[in-house]
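Aminotransferase-like plant mobile domain-containing protein, Cuscuta epithymum. Tokens?
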Amino acid sequence: MILGLPIRGMPLSGPTIKGKAQWINLCTQSCGFTPLETDMRTSDITLSDVTRHPIVPDSTDEEVTEHTRTLIWQLLGGFLFPDTSGTRIRLYFLEVLQGDLALARRWSWGSAVLGYLYHNLCNGAK
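Tokens:
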């Protein structure tokens, strides 16, 4: 309960998008930038490619929403669900953040973080 993440709600499951072209399209539509294909792997992207697109004072409401979605994606991928490299974030979380950002509350984030922690502790103990 330290972070106050909801434990009731819809469970997070695997991605429905497959392939780099679909991920690039999702980044373009949801975050307003087109990532370089060299910065992408099958399921993750270089964090520096995501942070390369700052917001400016005269941004439109749509650009602010895109930037907000990108910041939430960075928090999810870099803080709650970190990659072992520390330089990459999972593309899957961007798929979860599609559409209205207020709907992100419907997911059981606390359960997902706990499951992710246990999964990685198990892998680390091998």
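The helical segments are 20-31, 47-51, 61-80, 92-96, 109-124.
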